Amino acid sequence: MRSVAEKNHFDDIVIGCDTGVFIGDIMLGKPKDEEQAREMLKLLSGKTHRVITGVSIFYKGQNISFSEVTEVEFYNLKDTDIDEYIATGEPMDKAGAYGIQGKGALLVKRIKGDFYNVVGLPVGELKQKINNLQKINNLV
Q1: Which end of the chain is more exposed for a tag (fewer CB within 10 A), N or C?
Q2: CB 121, CB 53: distance < 8 Å
Q3: Are residues 51 and 72 in contact, defined by beta-carbon separation less than 8 angstroms?
Q4: Which residues pair with 14 in a beta bridge?
Q5: pLDDT value at residue 5
Q6: What is the pLDDT confidence band of residue 10, given thresholds at 50, 70 and 90?
Q7: How high does pLDDT run on average in the chain?
Q8: 37: pLDDT confidence band, cut at 50, 70 and 90?
Q9: Residue 136 pLDDT more than 90?
């Protein structure tokens, strides 16, 4: 990403990010099939997990990287709850097998931290960091 930003987009803001769902020391990616989605959702059921997004921003040769952590607590899910959610197809392209911005919101009891981080991009913090980078470059 750095080489692309420096060679082809030096005057542009270039952002790279990725989000992971962590339960204890286990990282949950996107499920490969419905059975893996079911296993992930059973693992998250009734527990609190962390959603961590790592972000790197390049602008005019400067780089700022940061991570955002949000805690998410799930309700105790019945097998029927999990099966109904999987039937929507929504979990199949989401880390941790759920999307809080969609029907997966019904699985979530509470969150502590940035909602948009769970969606996949902590936009408020990102804007603050971009503002800082632009200020730095205006001073140089």
Answers
A1: C
A2: yes
A3: yes
A4: 58
A5: 72
A6: confident
A7: 93
A8: very high
A9: no
Under DSSP, is residue 3 helix (H, G, I), strand (E, B) or coil? helix
Domain of 63: which CATH number?
A: 3.90.950.10
Active site members:
18
Residue 18 belongs to domain spanning:
2-139
Instruction: Work out how many domains the chain is built from and give that number.
Output: 1
Token duo for residue 129? 């960091």
Partnered with residue 54 across adjacent β-strands are 18, 67
Rounded to two decimals, the pTM is: 0.89
CA–CA distance from 90 to each of 29, 37, 52, 105, 120 (Å)? 14, 10, 20, 11, 15
Contacts of residue 69, defined as CB under 8 A and 6 or more positions apart, other chains included, come to 50, 51, 52, 113, 117
